[in-house]
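CORE FACILITY INTAKE
Project code: CF-77B
Contact: R.S. (postdoc)
Sample description: multi-component assembly, two entities in total
Requested service: structural model of the whole complex
Turnaround: standard
Below are the sequence entries exactly as provided by the requester. Do not edit them.
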Amino acid sequence: MLRISQADYDLIRWEAERRYPLECCGILLGTAYVGCREVSLTVMCENAGLDPQRRYSILPEQLIATLKLARSRHENIIGFYHSHPDRDPHFSPTDLAEANYFQHSYVITGVRQGRAMGTESFVLTGSEEDRQFEPEEIRITSRRTPLPRLVNHAE
Amino acid sequence: MLNSDEILRYSRHLIMPEVGVAGQEKLKAARVLCVGAGGLGSPLALYLSAAGVGTLGLVDFDVVDPSNLHRQVIHHTSDVGRSKLVSASEKIAAINPFVNVKTFETRLTSENALQIFSDFDIIVDGTDNFPTRFLVNDACVMLGKPNVYGSIFRFEGQASVFAASKGPCYRCLYPEPPPPGSVPSCAEGGVLGILPGLVGIIQATETIKLILGEGEPLIGRLLLVDALAMRFREVKLRKDPDCAVCGNHPTITKLIDYEEFCGMRGPEKPVSNGAPEISVEELKRRLDAKDDLFILDVREPNEFQICNLNGHLIPLNDLPKRLNELDPDKEMIVHCRSGVRSAKAVEFLRQSGFPKAKNLAGGILAWADRIDPKVPKY
């Protein structure tokens, strides 16, 4: 399950609309618990993909900077988000092939004619040789309400 | 209006189209407050005064310590023991007598922050502790004043401009303070002497840009400085709609008790977790009596090289995997520099089957102060 505040959920959907017809992309910071990840901050990134209408790419420097920010907050990167202009919020074969962070959430927002439609989340599971995206529930919370800390991969 | 001496002094500014006479007059009319006259405050005060900021406020209550000198370049060796504000004011006057320096020799508190800030246009955060950083942020949000932020640790630094009317504030980035003791201060973890110069000058640059209204301010951007790799990275920041102080429904509408908020009794007081303690005087007495004590030093090897009490060195982070080096039946006195890390070590040891572990209150600093002045303090 991915827990995300209404405010953060709205922000990534707003960004998907704002970047249309290009794909937006960004990084989710927060805390990983047993069977659940909780978003505490969304960091928007420049889409450095060569074909930004159909692909997204986050620069390694951006990833390092965000990781440093996460550590300074005693948190970690727990997932990524991007948009699918004029496509469904379902992962593409490229999304799966290029995903590298196992047990992280990959959130996709479908955009039709500039309007955000569905938003779905998938967890990368399996191994390098045999990877899958498993759908996960997105639970929207009214405000940020931290759970008791059980497992924090940042520690 | 600039007089002829000022025109000559600022001539390299005046010929720049982005500054010019109008910009220099804006600088002269500007009122900037630096919170802290230490590592970040030194380059800030030096460069802002040289640049011609008309009114420069300084808040600090400390005196110059020898351990400040490797980075707090506004203070000289001859200033050791003197008020930082007196020392800084003299240097500013020597650099630029046209600057009106206003000093506030006090600890910034929830009671005085709004009043002090109200006379200034821009607040520059050169603080070294979390309670004051949250206080500066909240007061700036409440007064609608930009907060030019900087922080440093070892080889890394951060800088941003928190202007809540246009972008995020510090709380949007850090809603909660870190657990007490989880983030070492510069005194505990060290800092590269040059780093506050680097970060402080970034803050000074942002301050000048805000005054001139030129360029792209660091609003909504967090600059991460890595001096070891010499890389400057950036993270885009957004205003948090749920922010407790600048969000859509703020829950903090007046200044609070920031030391309580940060889980501290006071920034100078070592964190005590209730671990059994022994005083340096008692340790000295028992060592002189040849009592069978095991001294465990949980500092880092480089600290051990500076000074030590002939203890057995196991850095705090290595302790869990090196417990086999310790005898649970032996009375163990654990120390570090100030007593903070050793208190954590004692708590861990007592939970791990070492019931005779005790913390040396005040650490090797207290030993140097009260037992052996030949032990160097660092």
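Facility notes:
- The interface with chain B takes residues 5, 7, 10-11, 40-45, 61-62, 64-66, 68-69, 72-74, 143-144 of chain A (CB under 8 Å).
- The first helix of chain A runs from residue 6 to 19.
Invoice: internal transfer
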